[in-house]
Write a structure and sequence with these properties.
The termini are far apart. Helices cover 82% and strands 0% of the residues. It is built from 16 helices and no strands. Helix 9 packs antiparallel against helix 10.
Amino acid sequence: LPILRSLKILEEQSRPGALKNALIDVCDEIESGSSLSEALAKSPKVFDRLYVNMIKAGEAGGSLEVILRRLAEFKERTQSLKNQVLGAMIYPIMVVLFTIGILTFIMIRIIPEFMEMFEEFGIELPAMTKLLISISDRVVKLWFLFPLVPISMFLFVALICKFRAGRMGWHLYLLKLPVIGKLVEKSNLARTTRTLGALVASGVPIIEGLTITRETSGNAMFEKIYSKVTDAIREGDTIAAPMKKNSRPSFHPVTLFFFVATVSLPPLGILLIQADLWYFVLYACAALGMISLLWYVLVCRKPVVEDLVINMIDVGEETGELDVMLYKVADYYEEEVRTITDGMLKMIEPIMIIFLGLVVLFIVAALFMPLIAIISGLTGGKK
């Protein structure tokens, strides 16, 4: 079928939305004499630079059908990788939210009823019960903080990322987190190498391909790496050498701030329950801050691009099969991401069960210890 007829069929099949509107505009542009790549370029919110440049290379080389098939495969693999990462996050988030909801209900509705009963009998409460009542009292008075705190944290991070240094610091923090950092690193490597491989295989010039890969990487550290590689290639260098040279991030104070803030949140939460323990909280924050500093110093200089990637790219450049090697690297890291996400799910489930079991044990013990004392008092200490 002619391109225009094909696009009209796709437009008719599409649901109302951005894609349908973009296809209508593309059809109008082609009818007025524009090429397919020129028409797609006028809808950048739907068809990004990667898409447009691959189509342009296909038009120039007379291999548009091959390029479109390659684009479809690329988009499917990229979306599959994204779904794997998001899928791994949904389960623990839903469990945590459900747990918080149940515990909030217990603290607001159930615990106050027991408090009234304990006050009527006037018995001396154990320390565990006093702690539970104190937590319940704070939850009743400060319930609005539960949605407000995560929203405030999200807005704070979004504000920090508006600045260049803040965005770099946040992205380095994500890359250096235990377990999650490896997931972020490998998913970025899989996405960027597949993007660059698809562009190189389509005949897009290497400088243009690296620029597009940098813009679509979504991580400030990888943007910096590909920017340095692009500058080196303009001066006649290869890809592998400058990539290896710039893959080690430097010490970043914003990243350290995020590490210290993360480990300080649990001790600061104690102040909501017992404000008179501020000295304990101060010492705990200082100790945990020093531990996070030592951790960050140990991991801050570790490269975010492994030697495997460097060597594969080096071989690809020497043999003239750079696109093949980039695809192999992407396939390898996509499998690594799948393995990590599966491992995280298997690890999170027992951790959640143990945590919930301990919370339930604490609540039950704190409530039943005074009840046993009341029953013993009513029966004169005899069964």
